[in-house]
Design goal:
There is one protein chain. By secondary structure, the chain is α+β, with helices and mostly antiparallel strands. The protein contains three helices and four strands. The chain has helices at about 1-10, 60-70, 80-85; strands spanning about 15-25, 35-40, 55-60, 90-95. The radius of gyration is 15 Å and the shape is flat. The two termini are about 20 Å apart.
Amino acid sequence: MHQTITECCRCLRPGGQMLLYVWAFEQPNGRFPSQDLLVPWNLSEIPLNGRLPQVKFHKNSTKEERVIQASVPVTVPDDEKASNSSGWLGSLMNK
């Protein structure tokens, strides 16, 4: 994930913005078999060859998220509302 974010930041122009969604592994009622999951990708919900395509997601721990944020050249605003959410977290990142 660190390499992905670093590359996205490299491609941003100065003053550019990136919207990044992460899904917390430590959810109160979450039980996941592992941190790597295949999630159905429903583009207009049209199956390809009889099934929906899947996208691999890696569920970050909050420690991993802090390490990544500290090592990429962007500003990540503290979004208290999103931080308290037990579901998806969206952060607007500025270069």
